[in-house]
Amino acid sequence: MGARASLPLNGIPASPGIVVGAAHLLRWEVPEVPTRVIPDEAIPAELERLNAALRKAVERLQYVRERAERTAGAAESAIFDVQISVIQDEELAGRVRLMIGQGFTAERAFDTVMVESREHFARSANAMMRERVGDLTDVHIRVLSVLLGLPDYDPVDLPKGANAILITHDLTPSLTLQLDRECIAAIATDAGTRTSHVAILARSLGLPAVVGLLDATTRIETGDRVILDGTAGTLLVRPTTAELSQADARSRAEALQRAQLAKVAGAEAITADGVRLTLRANVDLPDEVGTAATSGADGVGLMRTEFLVVGRASMPTEDEQYESYSNVIRAFDGRPVVIRTFDVGGDKLPVGGYPHEPNPFLGWRAIRMCLDEPELFKTQLRALLRAAVHGDVRIMLPLVVSVDEVRQARFLLEESARELAARGIAHRADIPLGVMIETPAAVLTADALAAEVAFFSIGTNDLVQYTLAVDRGNASLASRFTPLHPAVLRLIRRTVRVGADHGLDVSVCGEMASEPIMAFALIGLGVRTLSVAPLSVPAVKQIIRGIHTSVAAEAVTRACDAGTPAAAEAVLRAALEQELSENP
Ligand code: PEP
Ligand code: MG
């Protein structure tokens, strides 16, 4: 507790839990560089300053790489080798030295050369070169922070058990890889919303998180004592003794509640009127598999495969992917595992960055990228077909807007199976293929899609974004991101009906399924399969066991007809509260 008054900051609850700890500020954006020229006699010293900074940056990267190799594996840590080779590139350093020779400071010269290189790489027709833009950006930030002496610009290693609360603008994939999870107790970001990747990642890691704080990085200093409440979405900076003891009491109450909920984990997901639901877990990262497998879930409803490509130096090989998928499939021991093909682009950036797109969420992402890069896609499909011999695997395509995409994907899937057969490699060819329903286009043509696929899974994070035209990752729009908007509810209702007409299973794997009131609405709309973060399985199971499908159906019919999201929410909340008071 310092001399300054405590400062409450409100953000968006992204991952539950209350943590008291010391703030650790991390900046990861290209810093401002002052323009300054130097006299001729200062040039040799400036050149030496550049060399020293480059050496220091390389040493740091070697250290980070070794640590990433220990925690995440050799493939993941290779990204840092690429960054080291950028710094050691003689042509690039030569251009910087030339500018210093003309009287520019080392930081001004380095900044100019890096801006030019990033633009050049981003415009390249060669995909491999475009993939390097993210690495160039990381190098740009790292070297400038050394030259300018900015201590907050390094994801430094914290002492073990530091219990630090990481405060940063946004958590990029390469930053995530550098973090020492043993020292970080919670995450707070200026950017982000409940459905942005940082929030999903924090939930996967079981780290309490508050996102969408807008300007926390300008209001907190490293070392400030902070209470982060990921359940309420608040950050209290420099709390008083009374506030600390309140937080302690809340944290103990939450732990108790979690322990009680854990007892529900093994119970059946059956409603109070006897309808058996299927409750599956979402798996985003390999280290989550154990938690997911023992969470009481009926299999995996969504395995995101982006971790295999995000923040990596090169695309994963077929064998490497086969191992990853097989691990999950084996852990679920015969229970269904729905694996989604690469959904990169948007807020999930692949291998070393991406060409800048003016509208990434409407851009070259997910199934679009996979169909345009058939070799990349087929490598994944072959790995999936091979891994499928170990259990009940289903393949799911993201961001589908048209039947053509499904047909092309199926063609590539069949071709992949033929290739494996020709090579005599064990695989399963008859793997069910489903689509994610994430766009109004998919909902409105669901009947045509139904004729082509084995199941639907509604991705409400994107469906809400594309229906309401609200960027899911924009913290300033978070209050307008309303999954209970009647338009969204009606689209889900329509999808469920089309699914029923065609005898298809329709699940929901977006974040909506994890929110009690929204899960209630989904069950009312006729959804019988939900897939949620592993840590949310017990809480959602408890809701399921406390409600009647008939009551939920009646409430959601009224919600669909409510004029506004707030009115829809009020109807549902009243009905759910009534249900839970009668069936505690
Ligand atoms: C969704 O859009 O709801 C979804 C589950 O996919 P992601 O969050 O990975 O885009
Ligand atoms: Mg999605």
Unreliable stretches: none
Percent strand: 5-15%
**What general form does the structure show?**
globular
Average pLDDT, to the nearest integer?
90
Number of helices: 23
- Ends distance: 41 Å
The helix/strand class is alpha/beta
In the CATH scheme, the class of the largest domain would be Alpha Beta
Based on CA atoms alone, the radius of gyration comes out at: 25 Å
Largest sheet: 8 strands, mixed
| Domains, number | 3
- CATH superfamily of the largest domain, by name, is Phosphoenolpyruvate-binding domains
Stated plainly, the CATH topology of the largest domain is called: TIM Barrel
Could you say what the CATH architecture of the largest domain is? Alpha-Beta Barrel
Roughly how much helix do the residues carry, as a percent range? Answer: 40-55%
Bound molecules: phosphoenolpyruvate, magnesium ion
Strand order of the largest sheet: 1-8-7-3-4-5-6-2
Structure description:
- By secondary structure, the chain is α/β, with parallel strands linked by helices.
- It is built from 23 helices and 16 strands.
- The strands form 2 sheets. The protein has an 8-stranded mixed beta sheet with strand order 1-8-7-3-4-5-6-2. Strands 9-10-11-12-13-14-15-16 form an 8-stranded parallel β-barrel, surrounded by 4 helices.
- Helix 15 links the parallel strand 12 (393-397) and strand 13.
- The longest helix has 30 residues, at 43-72.
- The radius of gyration is 25 Å and the shape is globular.
- The mean pLDDT is 90.
- Phosphoenolpyruvate (PEP) is lined by residues 195, 302, 304, 343, 438, 459-462, 509-510.
- The site of phosphoenolpyruvate has 11 residues, from helix 18.
